Amino acid sequence: MRSNLDLIAHLFDAGYADARIAEAMRKVDRAQFVPASLTPNAYIDSPLPIGHGQTISAPGVVALMSKLLDVKAGMTVLEIGSGSGYQAAILAELVGKRGKIITIERIEWLSAAAKSNCERAGYKNIEFIHGDGSKGYAKNAPYSRIIVTAAAREVPKALTAQLAEGGKLVIPVGQPYRQDLLVIDKLAGGVLKTERSIPVVFVPLIEGY
Q1: Which member of 57, 66, 82, 144 is catalytic?
Q2: Residues 129, 104: contact at Cβ < 8 Å?
Q3: Pairing mode, if any, of strands 143-148 and 100-105?
Q4: Could you list the residue range(s) of the whole structural domain that residue 136 is in?
Q5: Is the pTM here over 0.90, yes or no?
Q6: Distance CA 125, CA 148 (A)
Q7: In the sheet where 163-175 sits, what is the strand order?
Q8: Radius of gyration of the chain from its Cα atoms, rounded to whole angstroms
Q9: Are 34 and 149 in contact (CB under 8 A)?
Q10: Is 57 a catalytic residue?
């Protein structure tokens, strides 16, 4: 693919993105969120390294996770794993000016880079936290939506505790080289309903920093 528009058309045609996700992703140029040396590869549907052993996820996975999360305008969303800020920027488009994204990154350099990328792209509704994402961020809980962009061996209890009733959590769970993408709905009374989506491969969610 030669442009962001080509990439989004591919994601829509492949079923990864619905119309609303495609519109949000059209406004977020992936080239602004990858290292300068990898700009020629920005529109390939593949993960790319962003330093410190971390990656920016494949656009198809970003689109699908965004669709599964079912974000509505005005929501407060917690993201675990800021990476380069690409997913946070797309979520910021989806929640709109009345909504807010709180994104946590354990690697301080990446958190700063993600903040710089998002601010340069014009986003003002994203708060960046340097910390241990496995513990969530209780200060602003409960959250309407939580998305995790690193692989957990099991679902962190802190995250389900910080999820509002009626809320949704999307998280990859499994072994280091293969996980299942889980969609967890928190029903009335705190009952958790879990559905499996697709097999994925993410970098590990690591406690502490």
Answers
A1: 57
A2: yes
A3: unpaired
A4: 4-200
A5: yes
A6: 19
A7: 126-130, 100-105, 76-80, 143-148, 163-175, 178-186, 192-200
A8: 16
A9: no
A10: yes
Q: Across-strand partners of 102? A: 78, 127
Cα-Cα-Cα-Cα dihedral sign, residues 183, 15, 204, 84? negative
- 207 in a domain, yes or no? no
* Cβ count within 10 A of residue 148: 27
Q: Model confidence at 4, in pLDDT bands (50, 70, 90)?
A: very high
- For residue 141, which amino acid is it? A
DSSP 152: B
Burial of 81 (0-12, 13-18, 19+ CB in 10 A): buried
DSSP 91-147: HHHHH-TT-EEEEEESSHHHHHHHHHHHHHTT--SEEEEES-GGG--GGG--EEEEE
pLDDT tens-place string over residues 113-168: 999 999 999 999 999 999 999 999 999 999 999 999 999 999 999 999 999 999 99
Residue 185 lies in a domain: yes
Task: Look up the CATH number of the domain holding residue 52.
Answer: 3.40.50.150
Here the tokens at position 195 are: 């559905």
